Amino acid sequence: MNAGHEVPHAMVEARGLSYSVKGEHLLCGVDLSIRAGENLGVVGPNGSGKSTLLKLLAGIQTPTRGEVWLGGQRLPTLSRRDIARQLAVVEQHAQTSDSISLQQAVELGRTPWLSALRPWSEDDTRIVAQAIADVHLQHLAQRPWHTLSGGEQQRAHIARALAQRPQVLLLDEPTNHLDIQQQLSILRLVQQLPVTTVMALHDLNQALGCDRLAVMAGGRLVALGSPYEVLTPERLEAVFGVQGHWLVDPFDGARMLRLRVGPG
To answer: Which residues are in the ABC transporter domain (predicted)?
Structure first.
């Protein structure tokens, strides 16, 4: 997280956030304050509410109860354009037209900033080029979208989000479809971005690079704090159904999780 003497203000807040579908509670009473410049990881088993939480924070879904605040303003009071100028989302199964090139897909990230009075400019071209470079896809910029691999498309979706130049970046399983080198590269990139980031992650060892972790279980936020505080052996057993303990990597002294399924 960005260093400084002042306490960073909240960029995104969830207040009593709940979401139900046909009587089924997918999210229940979540209170969460995400600080400016923070890299927050959201972890939990499948069906714990990770994706639902991100969609509510982004305004993609409307909460059954509670509210979301973005940059000190209630989300429903902001227009879609205003939200898109502050917040970008990389969804787990994002769709893009097959008929465009990778560069054209990334250029769509500039849409919230364009209007009749503010047409496309050289600055937009520069921002798009930088976003493509950030995810190391310059050599594929003119490739048709349908010829890209799943991993290349995922990186391009991240580039499109970066092209929005958001203050807040929400990513739902951003390392899906990527090989291990690309996973580590994308996570390092996200952690170095000068924005507030919220990532839903499956891999607990990859989540250790986050400033804080929000642990979800059964649609509830059951723990919030530094990775080493919240991923206790007791919580790993209760939430994820695995046994685990901490190891120290002799190469660089970093702590890592050793996970295993219990007997029976």
So the answer is: 12-243
Beta strands in 54-211 (DSSP E): 65-70, 73-74, 87-90, 168-172, 196-200
Chain segment 171-181, per-residue pLDDT in tens: 999 887 788 88
Nearest to 91 by CA among 58, 129, 67, 49: 58
Q: Label residue 235 left, alpha or beta by phi (over 0 means left) and psi (-120 to 50 means alpha).
A: alpha
This model's pTM is above 0.85 = yes
Residue with token string 């994308």: 186
State phi, psi for 151 to the nearest 5 degrees.
-65, -40
Q: How far apart are the first and last CA of the chain?
A: 41
- Is the alpha carbon torsion for 103, 106, 111, 117 positive or negative? negative
Q: β-strand 39-43 against 212-217: which pairing, if any? A: parallel
Q: In the chain, helix, strand, coil percent, each to 5?
A: 35, 30, 35
